[in-house]
Amino acid sequence: MSEAKDDLRDLERLAVELAQLAGDRIIASLGTALAVKYKKLSREEEAEAEFRDPVSEIDSAVEAVLRERLAERYPTHAIIGEEEGGGELPPADYTWVIDPVDGTANFVNGFPIFAASIGLVHKGDPIVGAVWCSTSHALRPGVYNATKGGSLFFDGARIEAVDRSAVKRRIVAMPNLMTDMSLGYEARQTGSAAAECAFVAAGLLAGARFDSPNIWDVAGGVPLVQATGGTVLTRQDAAHDWKEFTRFDAPRGVVWRQPMIIGGGETASALALTA
After folding, report:
1. Is residue 135 part of a domain?
2. Is residue 263 assigned to a domain?
3. Are 213 and 125 part of one and the same domain?
4. Closest CA to 131 of 213, 71, 194
5. Which of 158, 180, 205 finishes a domain?
6. What kind and span of H or E run contains 243?
């Protein structure tokens, strides 16, 4: 058992190292002219919003470095990354799920909320998460990290969610800002699902709802939320009820992409009523 814990700590240390590496590369690129491309969309998507999903040269360069480091350290582990496509969980026991820049639209426009997310999934179960955020509860960049069953850390120091019970209208992150105000929440959009996971874990947001996240958007953030006792809910689609998240589960050959709600139990239940 002790050996397993030591192995998990080693994996967590690597996740933190990679998240910080990504953050350092992102910061080093600030203020420079960036080459930006846009992902090809389906015809239906193009009709709705052209140039909706940007990819900067930093996204691609950072993902390449992360993949190289992971392959060196754990050559038998699988890797899923946003920029090289995929999304299907491979048959490998361990899969690293990486998003080199989450919130690329913010990043390329100079809007200072974006993140780099590193998650490790064991047979579908997210066991390690490290998310570098451009800002934080400490009003500076840093890495939030946690392991399954462990505590939440920020830049190596253990943190607890702040008691904000005196605040009568908490903030939640919503995809469409159409929160029913009678629920007692103010709605915001940050443009970065990974950052929102970290902010919920740290108590900056009471909760968040994601309508159709990719696995790389949330794999690094779920362990953070769970480390502070947060609730994680998912459902297959609008025709199904919300249920407690247990693992990233999809049939072989199918990309995992399901609605998700995170937050304290009461907040998560309230957000489930809005969808």
Report:
1. yes
2. yes
3. no
4. 194
5. 158
6. strand 243-244
Who contacts 123 (Cβ-Cβ below 8 Å, separation ≥6)?
Answer: 93, 247
Distance CA 135, CA 211 (A): 24
Last-in-domain residue among 107, 123, 158: 158
Q: What is the pTM of this model?
A: 0.90
Q: Are residues 50 and 107 in the same domain?
A: yes
Task: Determine the 3-state secondary structure of 1 from DSSP.
Answer: coil
Bridge partners, 266 (sequence order)? none
Q: Are residues 147 and 209 in the same domain?
A: no
In tens digits, what is the pLDDT along the chain, a chain of 275 residues? 454 665 999 999 999 999 999 999 999 988 876 666 665 554 444 444 454 555 567 888 899 999 999 999 999 999 999 777 666 888 889 999 999 999 988 988 889 999 999 999 999 999 999 999 999 999 999 999 999 999 999 999 999 777 888 988 899 999 876 655 557 888 999 999 999 999 999 999 999 999 999 999 999 999 999 999 999 999 987 778 999 999 998 777 778 999 999 999 999 999 998 76
* Residue 137 DSSP code: T
Tell me how far CA of residue 98 lies from CA of 76, 241, 251, in angstroms.
Answer: 16, 29, 21
Identify the CA nearest to 122 among candidates 95, 82, 98.
Answer: 95
- Residue 47's domain comprises 2-158
- To the nearest 10°, report the CA torsion of 202, 101, 103, 145: -10
Place of tokens 């080199």: 100
**How long is the chain?**
275
- Residue 101 CA to residue 41 CA, distance in Å, equals 19
What is the domain count for the chain?
Answer: 2
CATH code at 27? 3.30.540.10
Does any domain span residue 213?
yes
- Residue 18 domain flag: yes
Angle at 205 between CA 188 and CA 172, to 5 degrees: 40
